[in-house]
Design goal:
With about 210 residues, this protein is an alpha/beta fold. It contains 10 helices and 6 strands, in the order βαβαβαβαβαβααααα. This is Response regulator transcription factor.
Length: about 210
């Protein structure tokens, strides 16, 4: 099953997969359709982009993670234009790391290489682009790796100097939700409460350093 919002890219992937003997049971253009079609067709492998409608954020990844939680043995291959280690780490943090792949579109050197990756991931292998591996190794030294993707978004907006109300509007959530995220950020970063430093400022500094 293929999930890709670009029509040309989607049809191209279908053509390549068919050429190498695979049957594409569904090809969809948004994350909601991915979840629905996966429930209907029960695919042997899901090939998905990260950023796609309806939110144009990490909707594709979120859908893939939800499918994987429902079917822990479902192979997932992410083919993305973006290198974001938190996405790869989130996928690998699901528990069983078999049947997981993360490739960068611009770094796929040959169609045969891509086809081989599809077979390996479908068979339970784990395939990560070398650049993704390098970023994950760096992430181990990053204190921000304790944060969830949403918490990192909140912290990035904090670094822009936005108030909690402004952050809530930007993320389309309540102020109470933002307050909860900020409390979690401060706790996860282990920032002390004292009279000489404001923890919010320390959190922003940690973000800017990393």
């Amino acid at each position: 099953m293929v999930a890709e919002d670009s029509a040309l890219m989607r049809e191209g992937l279908v053509g390549v997969l068919t050429r190498f003997g695979h049957r594409v049971c569904a090809a969809v253009g948004d994350a909601d359709a991915l979840v629905v079609a996966a429930g209907e067709h029960r695919p042997d492998l899901v090939l998905t982009d990260i950023r796609m409608p309806p939110g144009q954020g990490d909707d594709g990844l979120r859908a893939a993670v939800a499918l994987r939680r429902d079917r822990p043995d479902l192979p997932i291959l992410v083919l993305s234009q973006y290198l974001e280690q938190s996405y790869a780490a989130h996928l690998l943090d699901l528990g069983d790391q078999r049947g997981i792949g993360y490739l960068l579109k611009d770094r796929v050197a040959a169609v045969t290489e891509f086809a081989d990756t599809v077979v390996r991931v479908a068979g339970g292998g784990t395939v990560l682009d070398p650049e993704v591996v390098r970023q994950l190794l760096r992430r181990r030294q990053d204190p921000l790796n304790r944060l969830t993707p949403r918490e990192r978004e909140v912290l990035a907006l904090m670094a822009e100097g936005r108030s909690n109300a402004a952050i809530a509007r930007a993320l389309h959530v309540s102020v109470a939700a933002v307050n909860k995220h900020i409390g979690s950020i401060l706790q996860r970063l282990g920032l002390p409460v004292d009279g000489d430093a404001h923890r919010r400022v320390l959190a922003v500094l940690a973000y800017l350093r990393n």
